[in-house]
Amino acid sequence: MTVVKRAYTLLRAGQIIFWDFDGVIKDSVTVKSTGYEKLFSPYGATVVEKVRRHHGQHGGVSRYEKIPLYLSWAGESSSPNLVQDFCNQFSNLVQQAVIDSPWVPGVREYLHENHSQQHFILITATPQEEIERILNALKIAHYFREIHGAPTAKATVVREVLDRLDCSPEQALVVGDSETDLGAAEKNNVPFLLRCTFFNQELQERFQGPFFERLKF
């Protein structure tokens, strides 16, 4: 059985599928990285390189956690007003670029063909209002029974949804591309399907479970 067929079979077996967005539905991790680099470019190449490296290794972490850290590297205070200002600037830099970014091959088709048979839940580090605007622009919001963005933690969403729907962990699946996604699955004893990208090569080396790059046969 090919990698794609194994991933497809695993997906079809799940009653509840928790989907990450960036890097799993849209190939948008690069545009997020570019956004952070532009945001912190006034602080010099050393800060930009640290930001680039950290974002690449922590793709599933919210900007509300990253930006205070990056501001500290830039020698700035992390006051609530400044953090919010940077978050707003970041949103302005990346929202349309995320909408315009390529689809992960085969995923949109899978969502379209199976959303009425399976319970799809979106879990993402993108802020709630922003991800809702993105999904509406892409005309895929109706594929998801629930949409959960930042600041709610992914592991918390998985636990609460399983409890509320009285679903056993083995009947669910988390599809993601980051340590945060894997952690959300492991903390709730839910199987995990890894989407392999350029940015998660270290995770690929350590993770011994099922994976895919594309869902097209």
Question: Could you write a compact summary of the structure shown?
Answer:
It contains ten helices and six strands. The chain has 217 residues and is an alpha/beta fold. It folds into two domains: 3-27 and 102-212, HAD superfamily/HAD-like (Rossmann fold, 3-Layer(aba) Sandwich); 30-100.
Order of helices and strands: HEHHHHHEHEHEHEHE
Ends apart, CA distance between termini: 11 Å
Quaternary state reads single chain
Average pLDDT for all residues: 95
Number of helices: 10
How many β strands by DSSP? Answer: 6
Sheet with the most strands? 6 strands, parallel
Measured on Cα atoms, how large is the radius of gyration?
Answer: 17 Å
Report the CATH C-level class of the largest domain: Alpha Beta
Question: What features would you describe in this structure?
Answer:
Helix content is 52%, strand content 13%. The chain has two domains: 3-27 and 102-212, HAD superfamily/HAD-like (Rossmann fold), CATH 3.40.50.1000; 30-100. The protein has a six-stranded parallel sheet, sandwiched between helices. The protein has helices at residues 3-13, 29-40, 45-57, 63-73, 80-100, 107-114, 128-138, 154-164, 179-187, 201-206, and strands at 16-19, 119-127, 146-150, 172-176, 192-195, 211-212. It has ten helices and six strands. The mean pLDDT is 95. Strand 5 (192-195), helix 10 and strand 6 (211-212) form a beta-alpha-beta unit. The protein is an alpha/beta fold and 217 residues long.
Search tags:
217 residues, alpha/beta, Rossmann fold, 2 domains, 10 helices, 52% helix, 13% strand
